[in-house]
Design goal:
This protein has 371 residues and is an alpha/beta fold. It folds into two domains: 117 residues, Rossmann fold (3-Layer(aba) Sandwich), CATH 3.40.50; 164 residues, Dihydrodipicolinate Reductase, domain 2 (2-Layer Sandwich), CATH 3.30.360. 32% of the residues lie in helices and 23% in strands. It contains ten helices and 17 strands. The chain has a nine-stranded mixed β-sheet with strand order 16-15-14-13-7-12-11-8-17, with helices on one face. Strands 3-2-1-4-5-6 form a six-stranded parallel β-sheet, with helices on both faces. Strands 9-10 form a two-stranded antiparallel sheet. Strand 1, helix 1 and strand 2 form a beta-alpha-beta unit. The longest helix is centred in the C-terminal third of the chain and has 20 residues. The chain is globular, with a radius of gyration of 20 Å. The structure holds nicotinamide-adenine-dinucleotide. Nicotinamide-adenine-dinucleotide binds next to helix 4.
Length: 371
């Protein structure tokens, strides 16, 4: 694989990607771009990337095959559409677009221009969720019939200096953190067929906890404590709680219930394990031996898999279809919350394939996983 990569969006998350993409065998990060070209310049110098450009100049370069879009959610649709129209492949941070309709339009455009399209998160390709998936597929707990998942926090205003946007439409705990959990569940169970929801807002205002605006109050425009009841096409069910309103909790991140036992999964916003299992005949929880793979920050692995898959003519794992389906589910959850009715989800992406040892080698995995 010899793939030219251009990154658009050089903010907070960009370094985590560049750490991996600049060291990936067979990939070259050719250029970085940002509306603020100074940011692109600074990161290009840190990571030894040859060019820092404005986004149009990046899209005009013939040596870029794949654009990695790390801009803010409100910009994703436009950046992704323009990159596809420039005949580049696209891998975008979550969500793929601000609305499910826009995400679907991107999937159609990508098919029309025959370019690969994929989206974050790719944490389900890490050791934790790949180990859980292998255990499920090997029948460690028998037929899985249900799961519970909990994204419980007291909100980002504790650590973020400008947390207002987390409480505006397009964010909230469901849209901001839900992608990690729903993607993980779809990678285990296959696509979601319908969703019910309940939830609300505990406080109409929040207070910034740190930084220059500490003590400032700001309004809340989203539901901050939301429970989804997901029904999968396979017949399995899951309960997903996402909240920014809980001060302390010992709830597990994800547990999967099978006819013979239970799997306890790690945080799906990381690549690491461990995975634990306990069956009807066990006296205690046991750690499931980890499959080989990426155990620490490997953000960007989904983008490399996307490019490799396109070259090889196979299906990518963190695909546009999957990211678009996840957005269908989350947006469906918000509709269900508003109407009180069950919302059917029409999209049916394939369950992504597990990572094989050959795939891992192609993606540059070694026994010493990247830091
Ligand atoms: N910050 C995190 O910890 C984190 C973690 C996981 C995922 N993400 C996701 O990554 C994405 C970026 O988040 P972030 O925290 O890095 O944001 P950020 O605000 O720190 O950085 C975004 C960058 O994109 C640039 N930008 C905005 N619109 C642009 C456009 N139209 N063209 C070119 N550049 C543009 C901005 O100038 C800025 O430098 C979001 O989708 C977010 O959900 C962030």
């Amino acid at each position: 694989m010899d793939i030219g990569i251009g990154v658009i969006g050089c903010g907070t998350i960009a370094s985590a990607y560049l750490k991996n993409l600049t060291r990936a065998p067979g990939a070259r990060v050719v250029a970085l771009a940002d509306l603020d070209v100074g940011r692109a310049r600074a990161l290009a110098s840190t990571f030894g990337v040859p060019h820092a450009l404005d986004p149009d100049a990046l899209l005009a370069r013939p040596d870029i095959d794949l654009v990695v879009d790390l801009t803010i959610p409100a910009a994703h649709y436009d950046v992704n559409r323009r990159a596809l129209e420039a005949r580049k492949g696209v891998y975008a941070e979550k969500p793929l677009a601000a609305t499910a309709a826009e995400a679907r339009a991107l999937v159609e455009l990508a098919a029309r221009v025959d370019q690969p399209l994929g989206g974050a998160p790719d944490t389900f390709l890490g050791v934790g969720l790949q180990t859980a998936r292998a255990a499920l597929d090997e029948g460690a707990i028998g037929r899985p019939f249900a799961a519970v998942a909990h994204m419980v926090s007291s909100g980002p205003e504790r650590w973020h200096h400008s947390p207002d946007f987390f409480y505006q439409p397009g964010a909230g705990p469901l849209l901001d953190m839900g992608p990690y959990y729903v993607t993980a569940l779809v990678s285990l169970f296959g696509p979601v067929a319908s969703v019910l929801a309940d939830g609300g807002q505990t406080w109409p205002e929040r207070t910034i906890g740190q930084g220059p605006r500490a003590g400032e109050r700001f309004p809340v425009d989203v539901a901050t404590h939301v429970t989804l009841l997901l029904r999968f096409a396979s017949g399995a069910r899951a309960t997903l709680l996402t909240t920014f309103d809980v001060q302390a909790s010992e709830l597990p991140r994800i547990e999967v219930f099978g006819e013979r036992g239970t799997l306890a999964l790690p945080d799906p916003n990381t690549f690491k394990g461990p995975v634990r299992v306990r069956t009807a005949t066990d006296d205690a929880w046991r750690e499931v031996p980890a499959v080989p793979g990426f155990a620490s920050n490997a953000r960007g692995i989904g983008a490399l898999d996307l490019a490799a898959a396109h070259r090889a003519g196979r299906a990518p794992r963190a695909s546009g279809n999957l990211a678009s389906h996840v957005l269908d589910v989350l947006e469906g959850g918000l509709t269900a919350l508003r109407t009180g009715a069950r919302v059917e989800i029409d999209s049916r992406p394939d369950r992504p394939a597990p990572l094989t040892p050959d795939d891992l080698a192609e993606l540059g995995w070694t026994q010493e996983a990247p830091a």
